[in-house]
Amino acid sequence: MSEQTKDIELYGKCVNDFDVSPFESIDMLYRRSALDQIFDELNLEERMNLMSYDVQLINNAKKCPITWLRFTIFHYQMNLSISGGGI
Q1: How far apart are CA 85 and CA 79, in angstroms?
Q2: Which of 7, 10, 58, 64 is deepest in the core (most CB within 10 A)?
Q3: For the chain, what is the domain count?
């Protein structure tokens, strides 16, 4: 199993795990961003799996908008804190 396939599978597991912390959610989205950077290197099966997980993520986000709003606010605050803007 290639490293990309492992990353895609891990991303897929995180997409469907509703008991993750905001830090784990951020890690999942950073993992997805990294996969996007190598998208051209993925084979057809890996691309299809990745897009399938993306659709699942979108559907999950539609089911719990309050959770995603809280996550978005948390992520924004973390970015401000990291960049020196404070909370």
Answers
A1: 8
A2: 7
A3: 1
pLDDT in tens, 10-64: 999 988 887 877 788 888 888 999 999 999 999 999 999 999 999 998 888 777 7
Residue 61 is assigned to a structural domain of this protein = yes
Domain membership flag for residue 57: yes
Print the domain residue range for 27. Answer: 3-82
DSSP per residue over 25-48, as a string? HHHHHHHHHHHHHTGGGS-HHHHH
Q: What is the pTM of this model?
A: 0.71
CA 50 to chain centre: 11
